[in-house]
Amino acid sequence: MVPPFLRRSLHRLPHLLSHLVLPRVTPAMSFSYQTLTRPVSPDQTRIGWIGTGVMGLAMASHLLSAGYSLTVFSRTASKTQPLLDRGATAAASPRAVAAASDVVFLMVGYPSDVRAATLDPTSGVLSGLSPGSVVVDMTTSDPSLATEMATAAEATGSFSVDAPVSGGDRGARNATLSIFAGGNETVIDHLSPLFKCMGTVRYMGGPGSGQQAKLGNQIVIASTMVGLVEGMIYAHKSGLDVSKWLEAISTGAAGSKSLELYGKRILDRDMAAGFYVHHFVKDLGICLSECQRMGLALPGLALAHQLYVSLMAHGEGGLGTQALILAVERLNNTCLSK
Q1: What's the rounded Cα separation, in Å, for the pair 116 and 122?
Q2: Catalytic residue among 79, 196, 214, 282
């Protein structure tokens, strides 16, 4: 026989349960449970790669060299051939890449390309990702788009990380890129074995912070490139041996990565793209838009943007960023090679 006090407690049990608030299982919790307990390694982690241009091809190659399986997509299919020759698998769309991958990297050209590759409801990466998977955008793009992608990914139980890079074609080939990462810090830490295949990753903050860091990087590079080519023009017009002058200043306060990477290329009239002018114009345009939004006046950035736009006007958008020398030569009716 049930005692009266226990009978009264049992009678109230449904009412008590109806007021019990259970913790909501969020996508982040799901990801932590499903994925973060499984180490990133070649035998457990399937990699997808979208975009195999000058930078993307080299970066993806490092993952293959580290033993990861790779599923690749490029709008120009022939650009994936070097990876296919090494054992990568081709996919017909970004969605197909995602369906075959745990982590999908993007290295494409413009924010519009990023949006199409990730957010398109029928062919985009997020429509094909499994819960607990990650998309990592390494394109220099809009911070607001990075935030939008992170929100959209979370709604599907997956994650989006913005991780643009600096270091150019040489950094991509040598796996010495600086990687600026924004998003969930736990996810970024978890992906560190993959980032180490390409360079050094630094966590910058929440979604969009990686893009903001990269835009600041581009502002510094733009003004440095203007200073470099103006100094070279000055040295030339003053009658100095520009090669000796570059060597002399390289170990002083005027030394820079831009001088190291591009000084000799400029003297050799080597304008081949390690980073395209038209992509740099895109980056600086995003910087200016962000400055307008924040109420910032950065005249050096604006000047560099206009000089690079002048290269576009002369049909030189497919050259490397060191082609800035051509714009300053035209302004001064001179040429370093004469």
Answers
A1: 10
A2: 214
